[in-house]
């Protein structure tokens, strides 16, 4: 759970997320988090928490999934991004097949991801 008053950035991707939109993933995350190219500056305040909502995606290409994982890996270990995939649809199927819980805390909807109803991240159990 996040601390009271903690800054949270919510990004939403919808429609077809594919090779054409991949560059936008990196630039949108960087812009939203106030990042600049080059090594990360020393921050007095922690980086904002990141929630990426792709539950409304109608198509989710492998290149965008890779870009999302790359962005997750750039976050500090203590700041696991939250990924909203919906209850069914392309994003939910991809998250289940690829077990994106290694890189993200995965939630079915934005309300849960923001802590509504004391939701816990969805974890897929392996064999």
Automatic annotation (TrEMBL):
**Domain STAS: where?**
6-117
What Pfam family is a match for this entry? STAS
Against InterPro entries, the record matches this protein to: STAS_dom, STAS_dom_sf
**What is the official name of this protein in its record?**
STAS domain-containing protein
Which lineage is the organism of this entry classified under, starting from the top rank?
Answer: Bacteria, Bacillati, Actinomycetota, Actinomycetes, Pseudonocardiales
